[in-house]
Amino acid sequence: MDYQALAELLFPNITATVDEIEARYPARDLPEGAKVTRFAPSPTGFVHFGGMYQAVVDERLAHQSGGIFYLRIEDTDGQREIKGAVEALIRTLSAYGVSYDEGIKLDENGTLTEVGAYGPYKQSQRAELYHVFAKKLVAEGKAYPCFSTEEELEEIQATDKKAEIKNTDWHVAAEQKRAAMLAGRQFTMDEVKAHLANGDPFVIRILANGDPEKKTKFTDQVKGTLEVPENDEDFVLLKSDGIPTYHFAHAVDDHLMKTTHVIRGEDWLPSLPKHIMLFNYLGFRMPKYLHTAQILKTDENGGKKKLSKRDMGAKMDDYRSMGYATECVWEYLLTLLNSNFEEWHMQNPEKSYLDFPFNIKKMAVSGCLFDFTKLNDVSKNVLSRMTADEIYEKALDWAQEYDTELYRVMAEDPQKAKAIFAIGRGGKKPRKDLCTWQDVRPYIGFFYDCFFSVDRAPLARFDAADIRSACTQFLQTYSPEDEMNIWFDKIKAIADTLGFASDMKAYKANPEAFRGNVADISMFLRIAVCGKENAPDLYTVMHILGEETTRARIEALIA
Ligand code: GLU
Questions:
Q1: Run of H or E residues at 60
Q2: 262 alpha carbon – ligand 1 mean position (Å)
Q3: Percentage of the chain exceeding pLDDT 90
Q4: What are the pLDDT digits (tens) for 307-345?
Q5: Closest C-alpha residue for ligand 1 atom 8
Q6: CA of 107 to the centre of ligand 1 (A)
Q7: How far apart, in Å, are the Cα atoms of 101 and each of 66, 109, 253?
Q8: 40 lines ligand 1 (CB under 6 A)
Q9: In this structure, which CATH number among 1.20.1050.10, 1.20.120.140, 1.10.10.350, 1.10.1040.50 belongs to the domain 453-559?
Q10: 271 Cβ below 6 A of ligand 1
């Protein structure tokens, strides 16, 4: 068979040569050791937590090494493509501060544009490139056209499935499939010409020469050394519409775009034999691979299962509506990505998570457990370390979209809101009241009359006369100018007059001798002023509320 002539027959419009294409994609001018990574989503939906996990690895590895991180859109499956998905995924990456150097971006007007010299970065625009390499493989007798109709192929697959259902020997089905495949390899030039003249659709298949009994060693950067069988399947390179399969596009794109590290889900591991064969056939050097562990969650019975699309936490955009700060989600991702991240963070509390030396060796090899308890824990810590100004800006931004009433009161008096957020912040042991922005309203709401309400339940076990008397006495002696210890001495004095212990030690030694203690008196005032027992430092609260509001609230309780 004259393979060169066959190639011309199948690709009459492809005139560019492989060398010409290679010349368009020169080696990247990067420092020694710089990594080139890519995030390569299909625009078929939202960014999944597992996808973000990979994107963070891409970003960290590239930028930590002075390399390049680019975004490639794998839109070869037009039927599954969702309108607006590319824009949405770019916005998600940007919301999380996962910045990339090249690829498809959104300009100021929200229009998609391309940045970088290694494009096009959308597979649907790279048809010529795939065809040049497919033509080369055909010309070298390493790939061939297959005119089997869809029905014929389906029949082969059906045989497969039937064998499976009946539980008969799998090998029989595999043999049949193989035989059909081998039969497809037998054709003459005249037959090809006749098919083409007839307008018959065809696919381009690789001519596999592997022996699956033979295994080669392969080192994955995450999984370690694996035994990979040789490929013996004549898998499709170009579909009948000329669009490449994932396998073929992966080899051509990652080669031309000079990817050094492919970070992708472990579900691609079974396809590795195909990729090894393709890179080999094409004479490309293989990139390094990091097959990332699946993200798991605990199910109702305590077992572990895959975090599915429909699970809470799967969709990156949902974190925003749930009120998680992006910084918190990033840090949580890092705790999952590198087992030593938390330890590092404790030792370097003042450093940004971007200073953390991310290490491939510390990545989970299999099954990475996602859970909200841990996320919340990380989140509280991250928010507790932010300044009052940062909290104010971020909470305000969230409230503008999700809680307009809260937004209004916070925006009306920024000084007041910042003073509230400053309570218990900045010290060695900052308060951890906030986990998500949804906690802001219950935490600070009582400072604003429009949200204020009183829960009297904690007062029920006390004498109403004691409560009234304590509050009245407080109003008689209260002066907003008092320093904290003087303010508290006055409360202690009230305790004494009512037969409540002002000295906690004395109270503990003999509780029966008292009607209560000074903490109870403070609690009466706290209920009056904050409406609830669990609230930040009362002295500071009164200060922020101001004398008028403080008095009005205490009077209301007396009444
Ligand atoms: N488009 C592929 C996916 O979404 C990309 C896999 C890869 O990173 O190579 O699964």
A1: helix 49-64
A2: 9
A3: 86
A4: 998 999 999 999 999 999 999 999 999 999 998 999 999
A5: 264
A6: 25
A7: 11, 19, 17
A8: yes
A9: 1.10.10.350
A10: no
Task: Report pLDDT for 157.
Answer: 57
Strands 143-146 and 112-115, how do they pair?
unpaired
Task: Quote the pLDDT of residue 426.
Answer: 87
What CATH number should be reported for the domain whose range is 298-385? 1.10.1160.10
Å from CA of 189 to ligand 1 middle = 37
Q: How far apart are CA 444 and CA 545, in angstroms?
A: 11
Ligand 1 mean position, distance from CA 247 (Å): 10
Interacting residues of 542 by C-beta distance below 8 A, sequence separation 6+? 480, 529, 550
Q: Is 254 in the pocket of ligand 1 (CB under 6 A)?
A: no
For 465, the token pair is 């006369």
Determine if ligand 1 sits within 6 Å of the CB of residue 42.
yes
Which atom of ligand 1 is nearest to 39's Cα? 8
Q: Which residues of the chain have pLDDT under 70?
A: 149-174, 177
- Note the pLDDT tens digit of each residue in 17-47: 999 999 999 999 999 999 999 999 999 988 9
Ligand 1 centroid – CA 494 distance (Å): 70
The pLDDT score that the predictor gives to residue 166 is: 47
Buried/exposed code over 332-346 (b: 16+ C-beta within 10 A; e: otherwise):
bbbbbbbeebbeebe
The closest-lying atom of ligand 1 relative to the alpha carbon of residue 263 is 8
Q: Residue 264 Cα, ligand 1 centroid: separation in angstroms?
A: 6
- Check pocket membership of 50 for ligand 1, CB cut-off 6 A: no
Q: What pLDDT is attached to residue 300?
A: 86
Per domain, the residue ranges of the chain are 1-124+217-228+240-292, 298-385, 387-443, 453-559
Handedness of CA 441, 396, 385, 50 (dihedral sign): positive
Fold of 1-124+217-228+240-292: Rossmann fold (3.40.50)
pLDDT at position 428:
86
